Amino acid sequence: QVQLVESGGGxxxxxxxxxxxxxASGLTFNNYALAWFRQAxxxxxxxxxxxxxxxxxxFYADSVKGRFAISRDNAKNTMYLQMNSLKPEDTAVYYCxxxxxxxxxxxxxxxxxxxSYWGQGTQVTVSS
Length: 128
Description:
The chain is an all-beta fold. Helix content is about 0%, strand content about 50%. It has no helices and eleven strands. It has strands at about 5, 10-15, 20-25, 35-40, 45-50, 60, 70-75, 80-85, 90-100, 115-120, 120-125. Strands 2, 4, 5, 6, 9, 10 and 11 form a seven-stranded mixed sheet that branches. Strand 5 and strand 6 form a beta hairpin.
């Protein structure tokens, strides 16, 4: 049974930092591309960042580029999202997601439909 469990969310002031973690079990971790998505109240889920199997390639939404950093530790079956210079508009529930290998994966990493497994989410609230 595949499980993805996010942690590290919380309340932070604008300009602050948080580090999210996503711990995975029940899958061969280094075979999966991973991503972070977020969903704010009343809005659709949106792509935040993705990382390939080995961690060699990373991708970011324009809204977080230069402020967020995605990484993974395949030995610990864990992915991270370091979030710096947080803004109130970053407030959302953050979800981690995993995708097995598939043709053309690099072209579809930003689509939520790509991912087979999802965590339950962790709330991030940034106060102004």
